[in-house]
Design brief:
Blueprint lengths: L16 E7 L2 E6 L2 E8 L4 E5 L4 H4 L1 E7 L2 H10 L4 H5 L1 E7 L4 H9 L7 E4 L3 H7 L27 E13 H4 L7 H5 L8 E4 L6 H8 L12 H11 L3 E5 L2 H9 L5 E5 H9 L4 E16 L7 H11 L2 H4 L9 E2 L3 H4 L5 H4 L6 H4 L3 E2 L2 H19 L1
Parallel strand pairs: 5-6, 5-7, 9-10, 9-11, 12-14
Antiparallel strand pairs: 1-2, 2-3, 3-4, 7-12, 8-11, 8-12, 8-13
Amino acid sequence: MTAKAFASTGDMSEKKTSFTEIGRDLYAFTAEGDPNTGVIIGDDSVMVVDAQATPAMAEETVSYASYGGAYQEGVRKAILDRLPAEKGMKVVDYVLAGGIRDIRTKVKAKAVDIDVAELYGGLCDQAAKEELIVPLDYSKIPNAAGVPEHLRNKNWVGFTAYTTVLAYNKDVYGKNPPKNWADFFDVEKFPGTRAIGGTYPSTNLEIALLADGVPKEKIYPVDIERSIKKWTKFKPNITVRWATGAQATQLATAREVDMLTIWAARIDAAIKEGAPYAYTLNDAVMDVECLVVPRNSPNPEGAMRLINHLLDPKYQARLPDYIPYGPMNQDAFKLGLISPEKAAKVVTSTENIAKQLITDMPYWAAHIIEAQTKWDAAMQ
């Protein structure tokens, strides 16, 4: 028989209350059988023993881990700091310095102290493949209904997203700017220096195929050989292969290249600093941040509740106020919680998401090693 929680997180839901005489001059105020308040009537006095769960007493603690920095601080301001007062939940957050490696180490050492973790794109499926995470209980995550269906996986759910776009120097291209990836590869029609994120094959291989005329709906499975061949031919035109988002931003602020692949949040930052650049979302490649529950997390039930709160459209609508990443719950847009003017600048808005290719995370979990080997050999 399962013990019933008392004066704790188990009392957070609505309960039917009653005032019952349980003995001579002895009464109990109960909540579905839990005697939260007792009243004893004596000859000269009345004694009340109050054990009702107050919000402070009932507050539960759940742990959350992400990648730190301004991003994690933004999530805290937009969502986590509101949960103690509004949901009776305190969230202790950690930084995943090593990403999936941190989760792997903790699970294998049976020293998991994280309830909910956030991982980059393909790492979500990789974590599931390694059995580092457990399936989500969607019956306890109703807010996930607003997340696009293909981003509601058995083991993870989409949370936010970042997008790789084609950015260009307006002073260089004037009234005839590049409009798509085909233009990026066309050095005769659009001469000038180029830069790409050169570390990983994901995103880059998709970009080459889009430039080669492959429709978005036919990108996967990726034709690795065809994509590598296109990049190999184009390689002499690449001036810089950036390795970090900060480096990519610097390339724009210093006007070191005329055209580059870059995360939308990073080029927005450069533009705010005065860089004369613009970008297009046409055929941009979107990668999704996902939420997972590590195996043997200390509070798996609380983890499901936290994920539900993180996906609440009311909270998701606050994210663009703090971080340049788009919320994945489309209800944040459909319910008018984000103004049309603001939505036009958010990469995950219903209108903007339709322009982009969303990375197939299961594909990359299965093919990253093969693709990385071939990419490294071709681009060295």
